[in-house]
Amino acid sequence: MTVSGRRRFVLTRKTPDGVLQQIWAHLLVPHALRELMVRTAAPPGLDGDRISFIETLRSARRSVTVTLGSFSP
48 vs 41, 45, 57, CA distance in Å? Predict the structure, then answer.
């Protein structure tokens, strides 16, 4: 962590195309998780803001890592 308490954003890719891909991933993953939260909340008539972002993130991680080969980029 930095002095301000925020995590540092580190790009691990070495090529310009790889860096661009990583930046897009950092921008799109939170958006995709929010969309998942809204879609999950809709059928029972809940507000999407009432669903935990952290729990959604953990659930998405489990579903991708538990079911190998089910997610293809």
Answer: 5, 9, 14
Element (DSSP H or E) covering residue 10: none
What would the pLDDT profile of 16-69 be if each residue is shown by its tens digit? 999 899 889 889 989 999 998 998 888 888 888 888 999 998 888 888 776 666
Q: What is the three-class DSSP state of 40?
A: helix
Torsion angle, alpha carbons of 35, 39, 45, 51, to 10:
-50
CA distance 44 to 60: 20
Does this model's pTM top 0.85? My answer is: no
